[in-house]
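Q: Structure tokens for this one, please.
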Amino acid sequence: MTHRDLARLENVSLKVGNKQILSSISLPLHDDCITTLIGPNGAGKSTLVKILLGLVKPTSGTIWREPGLRIGYMPQKIQIDRTLPLNVKHFLQTPHGYPLHEIEAALKDVGASHLLNYSIHDLSGGEMQRALLARALLRQPDLLVLDEPVQGVDVNGQTELYRLITEIRKRRRCGVLMISHDLHLVMASTDHVICLNTHVCCSGHPEAVSADPAYIELFGASHAATLALYNHHHNHSHNLHGDVVAGECCDGDHHHG
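A: Here is the predicted structure, written as tokens:
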């Protein structure tokens, strides 16, 4: 199956003062593929996403985006003044004034139709993440960029959100770039992993990355062993209804090293 290139970063580096934030990062993004950036705090994951979004200018390297590319961005968290009376409908309408039927469709897509008239301040962690995901989907994106999409959500809720993201990607055939700090949780819900620590340590299938010496050095052998055990029992994924679906790969030429 041929895949459409959505965006590419080539040899992107960023230096601020004497500090090297990112070094020679190359990153291809395709439609119908979930790419996950993992790495420790301070690895440069969020900065790399800001470069892709055009919010930060790299010191060197090139960024190519498909002409007319629509990106739906879900930030790691959002600060809303608690004194501001704001329900989910108005939150999703701001600032673009989307019509009600589009807002209802986006909430339905993320399994949160019932939240339409809830106060944004009363949402649980998982409900807030679904509202933020609905907001990103309102752009009808070719590429969804999700910065720690399960932030502030309990483990069961995290698994559900990752399943939901996988389901949305299949339904909409969009590309997904996701930041995560934990590979074993995202393992069943990603096609391609890039392990970042200011530079690309390793990349490829989740299974290949979890066994890569560079990954083990970064995260520790015990974490890698846990991951191998987890993957042995979870070498498939589920849809929203809990049915087992076979894993799919976005690209035949993944590499690591």
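A few notes: The longest helix spans residues 155-172. The radius of gyration is 18 Å.
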